[in-house]
Design a protein that fits this description.
This protein is of the alpha+beta class. The protein has two domains: 77 residues, no CATH class; 133 residues, no CATH class. The protein contains eight helices and nine strands. The termini are far apart.
Length: 211
């Protein structure tokens, strides 16, 4: 996550907040730092030792919150930008559920926040929509032709000015036909309510009813 605290008349400092459940790989790399030239700096050591690193003059502050993401999310300030990059849903299932995105939205829903993620899966986009985000198409990256951008309502008001492209009725029609249109943590008896929730979103207002 990233947030910037405005200071009148000055360049705004940048604050980065990272979440990590397992720091074993970083500890291993630092024990073998001669093999990793990019670790020959104060940042990685400071972040591991004290959970925070500051650049000279504190223009950049990097904070690490170790442990369960859901449990520690409320400790971070409301972010301007979220780079959502967990392992895939097959490996890190809980991070891609409606429950998790509900928590993320609760932490930033009143703020102008944009969330970027590499996933463009139907169930992930549906979960983001149901959590309260306005969802758009993200730019290509690597082998992926499309990624996902999610915005809080406040951020969505600036979507046109920022050049964002929202999901529209074409995506909604594909979602209706998909076998993965409901996130994995929604119980079967809640599927109908979930579908109604998506269909009623202002983002898709005017879409025709399914035949």
């Amino acid at each position: 996550m990233g947030c910037r605290d405005a200071i009148e008349g000055e360049r705004r400092p940048l604050r980065l907040v990272s979440f990590e459940h397992d720091l074993g790989s970083l500890r291993l790399a630092l024990r073998n730092a001669t093999r990793f030239p990019h670790l020959h700096r104060a940042g990685p050591n400071d972040i591991l030792r004290s959970g925070e690193w500051r650049s000279p003059g504190s223009a950049v502050v990097w904070t690490l919150l170790e442990g369960d993401f859901g449990a520690r999310l409320a400790e971070a300030p409301p972010p301007d930008v979220i780079l959502y990059d967990p392992f895939s849903a097959r490996t890190d299932t809980e991070m891609w559920t409606l429950e998790c995105f509900d928590r993320v939205f609760a932490a930033c829903g009143e703020h102008d926040t944009e969330l970027f993620t590499y996933s463009a899966s139907t169930s992930v986009r549906a979960a983001l929509l149901a959590a309260g985000f306005v969802v758009g198409r993200g730019v290509p990256t690597g082998t992926k032709a499309e990624t996902t951008l999610a915005m809080t309502p406040s951020a969505a008001l600036r979507s046109v000015a920022r050049g964002r492209v929202l999901l529209g009725t074409e995506w909604l029609e594909r979602w209706r036909r998909s076998d993965a249109r409901v996130p994995s943590d929604v119980p079967v008896d809640g599927h109908a309510v979930f579908v109604e929730r998506i269909m009623g979103l202002a983002q898709f207002r005017g879409a025709s009813e399914p035949a």
